[in-house]
Design brief:
Layout: H1 15-25, H2 32-35, H3 38-43, H4 45-48, H5 51-62, H6 78-94, H7 119-140, H8 150-173, H9 175-182, H10 192-209, H11 218-233, H12 235-244, H13 247-253, H14 265-279, H15 285-295, H16 306-313, H17 317-338
Length: 349
């Protein structure tokens, strides 16, 4: 059975306050420890810096904070331009309802509990989510592990908590994508409920790495991510993928916008290969190897999992994932610099 991504019920009334909380928290507010004189701070050091506080600081300091950077984050008026609209939108969305779930079985109601997002709302939520994580990452670098500041740790944790709530809201608003794709992949071995549950994993990941600054709607990218995952996970999908889709298209998605076109698959495949041959050489040997293995860039190769590649290369799974994302971004930049024409992805993918 599926498990829709939801927030703690006890916090259900706090979403409307998220934007206001982010605005206040963005203003530097030193904790009491920072306001004490050096002499007084030294006198209470044993009380202030407990082992429990140190462990908390170490945990936060070692936490990887992943976000999609935007040039807007470094602007002097970033708080006003990003958090003010977020504050207003959170107030509007908190009471929003969606009647689209009418006629659906009651067990699927959570999948439609959040209304569809308009393009402007989508931009505000993605910008807000990533900006909060960006600010949290900057504050994390200021942690003094020998004498951690309680106020600083509180601010970091609150920003990450609010970013997580925004992420979950975006996910809830796009669960319809999973439902629509799952309907076409059910078979004897894969029930609708199981596919919907599995389809939430790529949706979550897509929300975390989507770059709203590129001007695309998330639904286009999210649809591809969910399909690509479920095509590999289900028997019906694998048969469909073997006939029409190769790993080359997977790599191409990281390089181009996602628009539908009736172009033939054979022509599309050849065009993508030509483009990739022109840009793969811009990467070092390890990056080329990772991309080729991850996306199966040869007809005889099947895409490999991050952990399989990591084991062979002697590095962590997370490192392989980071190198993949970085390599795709570098290839995209080269393509844009050289004004190469990127074939559009067929509608059937």
């Amino acid at each position: 059975m599926y498990s829709a991504v939801t927030d703690n019920p006890s916090d259900s009334d706090s979403f409307s306050e998220l934007g206001a909380r982010a605005l206040v928290a963005n203003q530097a507010k030193p904790c009491q420890c920072e306001l004490l004189s050096v002499k007084k701070a030294a006198r209470i050091k044993k009380y202030c810096v407990t082992r429990e506080l140190q462990k908390r600081a170490e945990k936060i300091h070692s936490t990887e904070i992943e976000y999609v950077f935007s040039d807007d984050f470094d602007q002097e008026d970033a708080c006003e331009q990003i958090l003010q609209p977020l504050h207003k939108l959170c107030l509007e969305l908190n009471s929003g309802t969606d009647a689209e779930s009418e006629g659906m079985p009651v067990q699927y109601a959570p999948l439609y509990s959040v209304p569809l997002l308009e393009k402007e709302q989508e931009v505000i939520l993605f910008k807000g989510m990533n900006y909060l994580k960006y600010r949290a990452a900057l504050l994390r670098d200021k942690i003094d592990l020998k004498s951690p500041c309680v106020g600083l740790l509180d601010r970091i944790e609150q920003k990450l908590k609010d970013a997580h709530r925004l992420r979950n809201y975006i996910i809830q608003a796009n669960l319809r994508l999973v439902v629509s794709i799952a309907k076409g992949l059910t078979d004897r071995a894969n029930t609708f409920e199981d596919i919907v549950s599995d389809g939430q994993m790529p949706l979550i990941r897509a929300v975390e790495i989507f770059d709203i600054d590129r001007g695309n709607r998330f639904s286009t990218y999210g649809t591809w991510a969910i399909r690509n995952f479920l095509f590999r996970a289900t028997k019906k999908g694998r048969k469909y993928r073997k006939t029409f889709v190769s790993g080359v298209e997977s790599a191409a998605v990281g390089l181009s916008d996602f628009r539908s076109t009736p172009r033939s698959h054979e022509s599309y495949h050849r065009s993508i290969q030509d483009v990739l041959k022109q840009v793969l050489h811009t990467l070092d040997e390890r990056e080329q190897l990772i991309l080729k293995r991850r996306f199966g860039l040869y007809h005889s190769d099947d895409p490999e999992k991050f952990r399989e590649i990591a084991t062979d290369l002697g590095i962590s799974t997370e490192r392989v994932r980071q190198l993949t994302i970085r390599s795709l971004q570098r290839m995209r930049d080269v393509i844009e610099e050289q004004n190469l024409e990127i074939p559009e992805i067929p509608e059937i993918i």
